[in-house]
Design a protein that fits this description.
The protein has 212 residues and is an alpha/beta fold. Helix content is 55%, strand content 11%. The structure holds CO-5-methoxybenzimidazolylcobamide (B1M).
């Protein structure tokens, strides 16, 4: 089994303690950080499918998520560069009712590399808290909302609509997450959508450039 396959298998099995060394060994074997990240995302798809099939339950999903987060910690310095430009502050969070944070954390990392100063509100963030964060921080140019559940799409809609009707200006809103599509983003009035963390950073830069 290659180191990449081992990383995949051990993330699926939720072997958090083994992951940092395995990820380092996979890097030493010549795999890129992007390849290893993709392998771990594939593992989470497998985990999700097993959950849907009733083969595993929430605790197994949780330990797999912990293992993936440990792997991302090792990859972070390689995935995230340092930008010399400053694009203002980004308020980011997973919307109300939703506890998934791996995707949000990846997006946050890529936005930081692109030049945003990150204000991370965490998970299960009510619309009012996003508004409060924009109000209480100067130079917020971007609000980024993540949602992983079909049942939390209404909370994403509420967040976008609350921000839009708050009277606050000078920022764009980008949304994303497994159940979010361009069509849904358009339907709730978000300014932008991206299917993954890399494209989220690209889209965010495009969006804030239109502010001036
Ligand atoms: Co949950 N869960 N989960 N889960 N979980 C999913 C999402 C699910 C698809 C699994 C399945 O059934 N196949 C399913 C949702 C089905 C649906 O709604 N259609 C599901 C369910 C049902 C649930 C519970 C309801 C289960 C239960 O309790 N019965 C429950 C809900 C809890 C809650 O939130 N209130 C629950 C709980 C959990 C855990 C807590 C155990 C754990 C999360 C731990 C954590 O995040 N710290 C968990 C996990 C791990 C998953 C899966 C297996 C993996 C998610 C993940 O981290 N993927 C997931 C299955 C799957 O996704 N295939 C599943 C890796 C991550 C990198 O991908 O977050 O999609 P993702 O991010 C991507 C893109 O979406 C995008 O960029 C990233 C890639 O670069 N992206 C953005 C994300 N945010 C973005 C924002 C952007 C732009 C792009 O702009 C701002």
């Amino acid at each position: 089994m290659s180191k990449l396959e081992e990383v995949k298998a051990m993330v699926e099995a939720g072997k958090s303690k083994l992951i940092p060394d395995l990820v380092q060994e996979a890097l030493d074997e010549g795999n890129s950080a992007q390849e290893i990240l993709k392998a771990m995302i594939d593992s989470m798809m497998v985990v999700g499918n097993k959950f849907s099939a009733g083969e595993i339950f929430v605790p197994e999903m949780l330990i797999a998520a912990k293992a993936m987060s440990r792997g991302i910690d090792v990859l972070k310095p390689l995935l995230a560069g340092k930008s010399s430009v400053s694009l203002g502050k980004c308020v980011i969070g997973t919307v109300a009712g939703d506890l998934h944070d791996i995707g949000k954390n990846l997006v946050s990392m890529m936005l930081e590399s692109a030049g945003f100063e990150i204000i991370d509100l965490g998970v299960d963030v009510p619309a009012a808290k996003f508004v409060e964060a924009v109000k209480n921080n100067n130079n917020v140019t971007l609000v980024a909302c993540s949602a992983l559940l079909t049942t939390t799409l209404p909370a994403m809609k509420e967040t976008v609509q609350t921000l839009k009707s708050s009277g606050l200006t000078g920022f764009k809103i980008i949304v994303g997450g497994a159940q979010v599509s361009q069509e849904f983003a358009d339907s709730i009035g978000a300014d932008g959508f991206a299917p993954d963390a890399g494209l989220a950073a690209k889209k965010a830069v495009e969006l804030v450039k239109t502010l001036n």
